[in-house]
């Protein structure tokens, strides 16, 4: 069975459905209609993890030398100790409300701290593993 494409123009609204297990996304389409996509939270979480790769693939298609990137301006950050173990939670956010949190083990936290203390040299810039 072949899927019917919806040419979306923009996300108009979203809301959590009763019970908190699904999210509804309302999309304005180029045909003037509005369409709703309902996804389980687990599927939306998987999509969240995949979206940056999808966007980067689109940019790489436009500019094959890899010079285009999706970059957000950091608005705030917060570091907290997890109660369960010695790891840290690093929360990064933009001024318009986008937030992402990472769990850092001691090795990652130390390496990040050391990298932030180094003065970046544009001629030897490297990407972390």
Provide a concise account of the structure shown:
With 129 residues, this protein is an alpha+beta fold. The chain is built from two helices and six strands; from the N terminus they run E-E-E-H-E-E-E-H. The strands form two sheets. The chain has a three-stranded antiparallel beta sheet. Strands 4-5-6 form a three-stranded antiparallel beta sheet.
List keywords for this structure.
2 helices, 129 residues, 33% strand, three-stranded antiparallel beta sheet
Model description:
This protein is an alpha+beta fold and 129 residues long. It has 2 domains: 8-62, no CATH class; 76-119, no CATH class. 26% of the residues lie in helices and 33% in strands. It has 2 helices and 6 strands, in the order E-E-E-H-E-E-E-H. The chain has helices at residues 41-62, 106-117, and strands at residues 8-16, 22-29, 34-40, 76-81, 88-93, 99-104. Strands 1-2-3 form a 3-stranded antiparallel β-sheet. Strands 4-5-6 form a 3-stranded antiparallel β-sheet. A hairpin with a 6-residue loop joins strand 4 and strand 5. It is extended and about 50 Å long. The relative contact order is 0.08. The model has no long low-confidence stretch (mean pLDDT 90).
